[in-house]
Each structure stands twice: as C-alpha cells, then as structure tokens.
Amino acid sequence: MSNRERGCWLLGKLWNDRSILPSTDCTVIEIPQGSTDAQGVRKLKDDWRQELRPDNRTAA
Predict the structure, then answer these.
(1) What is the rounded average pLDDT for all residues in the chain?
(2) How would you write 25-44 as a 3-class SS string?
(3) Any long-range contacts for 48-53 (C-beta under 8 Å, 24+ apart)?
(4) pLDDT given for residue 60 in this prediction
C-alpha cells in the first residue's frame, strides 16, 4: 500500500469512531478538546483536500 492508500484506509476505519481523542491530539490537529476520533479524521480529511486543491485565486 502507498502512503496515500494507508491514509485513506485509516480514515475509513475511524470515520465513525466515537472514542474521545486525547487532549494533546486535539491540540495538534486544532479541534476542540473532547472531540472524537471521527471528528479528528474528518478535520484531517478536510485539511488534506485543501492541500490538494488547485489554487483558483489566480483566475479572474
């Protein structure tokens, strides 16, 4: 598996996980303390999409 495939696999496994993330992990991924694993991976996926999105600001 490539790094991307492993990342996608992990996102899928944790997508609905209601376990509470440790506060340090919440701080690192910039989500409120007490957030779940599912909330964390959804934030990471959104961040990942933003990084991969082409910059459309140059088109006017």
Answers:
(1) 87
(2) HHHHCCCCCCCEHHHHHHHH
(3) 48/7
(4) 46
Q: What distance in Å separates the CA atoms of residue 6 and residue 43, rounded to the nearest whole number?
A: 17
- Please classify residue 49 by burial: count the beta carbons closer than 10 Å to its beta carbon, then call 0-12 exposed, 13-18 middle and 19+ buried: exposed
Q: Which amino acid is at 58?
A: T
Cβ count near 27 (within 10 Å): 12
Total-model pTM: 0.73
| Distance, CA of 12 to CA of 2 (rounded, Å) | 15
For 43, the token pair is 């934030």
Band (33; pLDDT cuts 50, 70, 90): very high
